[in-house]
Design goal:
single chain, alpha/beta, Heat Shock Protein 90, Rossmann fold, 3 domains, five-stranded parallel beta sheet, about 10% strand, kinase, His_kinase_dom, membrane, phosphorelay sensor kinase activity, transferase
Length: about 550
């Protein structure tokens, strides 16, 4: 309507043909876009061609406007082209081809319009052409900046979407994991509560069998707890491994001996090859190596209904020097497919929805085992195919070691102590205090109990104890500060203090020793380990 109104004037009769040309170009563009939506790869060039044709038709108006000789006509033509360039800049959305197709005709008209108008002697034309060149430069810079911004935004959106999907999957896996752990905990808890209840009532007979049931349930709970603690340490970057001399053949044979009975009960053959080629002594972390091997053997026996489980050992030279120990555990079980293999070492996950229901377990064992393998400088890999068993290969550096000196045996009674030492137990949890009291009284010790650090200071100010068992994490005055105050003054300034704690990392033990503690017992403790530590510290105190 605007073009029709202006085009009635003879001087602006070019407006109507220009409007019809633009409408025709827009019609072609609409057809190309419709075809593009149905088949994008095939019609992308047609769309770019239609965009270019529309830009040629639309920008042509600047030439006759400039040729009118009116200042407003020249200004209008320049504004028309500048606005079209800005529109092309926004519409391209970072695409170089789209920007070139829509902006190039307008930028070309920007230079051609004053030249085609025949105003060669006008001084202002030269200034206009210089300004047009600067505009091209600025437009190119703005396009480059906007392209980087748009690409970064797209990558951020894509990454955010991936993170969202991963977070949803992780939340789902953790929810399933929590439900599974709750189920796993109920089994040993039921055994403990039932057995302890019958012992307390004195019913059912056979207290030894009930005690064994409680002990087995405790072992199950401790294994679950150890998996959770190991994973939390690994995720927090606090897990550490040691390097000491040990016999790999003795370690592997002891571990196989432990699993041989279970394999025999399932009718499986447990084979071991390659042991003769092992060096007598190597350096490494035997505790963590045994943990990984136990997990691999446990899984192999658990998931193999019939056939055999093989442990194969080999030694190879490293390119940078030294030896590599390769330990492969192969079974004849059902194996797993590519999808299961991809998430085999994922924490909180298991091979299928029915795995936890059928076999139990936390789904953490393989994830922890691979992380431990890498902490030790090696790796843990897996290969399998559905229906043809699984094969796990553990590779570890095996630097040459030396035979460690034989430790001197502890000269201590098997069941108790020759005299009646006085021991103070400091723990903020009543169950822990009662448990330690029963164990220590069974050793023949005289036991006093303190529920916090302040009470322990009061008791220590009145009585001289032979040893103090100190919880580390307590509200108010914790175990470290309590020990420091004991070491400052009083009757128990030189009394051995034993930390009873679940935090047994190198930094935790160093903090305990710095506070003045002589030794430690890891929670949940074993009775034999507690007895050995008490014997050691009491003998050292007596010798001093």
């Amino acid at each position: 309507m605007v073009c029709a109104a202006i085009g009635l004037a003879p001087r602006f009769s070019f407006m109507l043909p220009w409007a019809f040309a633009c409408l025709a170009a827009q019609g072609l563009q609409a057809l190309a876009l419709r075809a593009f939506e149905a088949n994008p790869p095939r019609w992308v060039l047609a769309c770019l061609g239609a965009d270019f044709l529309l830009a040629v038709a639309f920008g042509w108006l600047a030439v006759p406007l400039w040729r009118t000789g009116l200042p407003a006509g020249a200004a209008g033509g320049a504004l028309l082209l500048a606005g079209s360039v800005m529109t092309a800049l926004m519409g391209a959305k970072g695409s170089r081809m789209a920007f070139a197709a829509t902006a190039t005709p307008h930028l070309a008209y920007l230079f051609a319009s004053p030249i085609l108008a025949g105003n060669h002697d006008d001084v202002g034309v030269k200034a206009f052409l210089i300004g047009s060149g600067l505009m091209v430069l600025v437009t190119s810079l703005v396009f480059g900046w906007s392209r980087q911004t748009l690409l970064a935004e797209r990558e951020a959106r894509a990454a955010a979407e991936i993170r969202r999907e991963q977070a949803v999957a992780a939340d789902a896996a953790k929810s399933a994991f929590v439900a599974m752990v709750s189920h796993e905990l109920r089994t040993p808890l039921s055994a403990i509560l039932a057995g302890a209840g019958e012992i307390a009532r004195g019913t059912g007979g056979q207290p030894k069998a009930k005690a064994e049931l409680i002990a087995d349930a405790g072992v199950m709970m401790r294994a679950l707890l150890n998996d959770l603690l190991d994973l939390s340490k690994i995720e927090a970057g606090r897990m550490s491994v040691e390097s000491i001399d040990f016999s790999p053949r003795a370690l592997i044979c002891d571990t196989l001996r432990f699993w041989r009975a279970e394999a025999r009960d399932k009718g499986l053959a447990l084979r071991f090859t390659g042991g003769r080629h092992l060096p007598r002594w190597i350096k490494g972390d035997p505790v963590r190596l045994r943990q990984v091997l136990n997990n691999l053997l446990s899984n192999a026996i658990k998931f193999t209904p019939e056939g055999r489980v093989c442990v194969e050992l080999s030694m190879a030279a490293r390119a940078e020097g030294g030896l590599v120990l390769a330990l492969a555990v192969t079974d004849t079980g059902p194996g797993f497919g590519p999808e299961q293999l991809a998430r085999l070492f994922t924490a909180y996950d298991q091979l299928g929805a029915d795995t936890a229901r059928t076999f139990g377990g936390t789904g953490l064992g393989l994830a922890i085992s691979r992380d431990l393998s890498r902490l030790m400088g090696g790796d843990l890999t897996a290969e399998s195919g559905e229906g043809r068993g699984a094969r796990f290969v553990l590779t570890l550096p095996a630097p040459e070691g030396e035979e460690p000196p034989t430790p001197e045996p502890l000269d201590a009674p098997a069941d108790g102590f020759s005299d009646t030492p006085k021991v103070l137990v400091v723990d903020d949890h009543e169950i822990n205090r009662r448990t330690l009291a029963q164990v220590l009284e069974a050793f023949g010790l005289e036991v006093a109990l303190a529920a916090d650090g302040e009470t322990a200071i009061l008791f220590a100010g009145e009585t001289r104890f032979d040893a103090i068992l100190m919880d580390v994490n307590m509200p108010g005055l914790d175990g470290l500060d309590t020990t420091r105050r004991l070491r400052a003054e009083g009757l128990n300034r030189d009394t051995p203090v034993i930390a009873v704690t679940g935090a047994v990392g190198e930094g935790d033990i160093a903090a305990c020793r710095a506070a003045g503690m002589q030794d430690f017992v890891e929670k949940p403790f074993e009775v034999a380990a507690l007895h050995a530590v008490l014997v050691r510290v009491l003998e050292e105190a007596e010798a001093a």
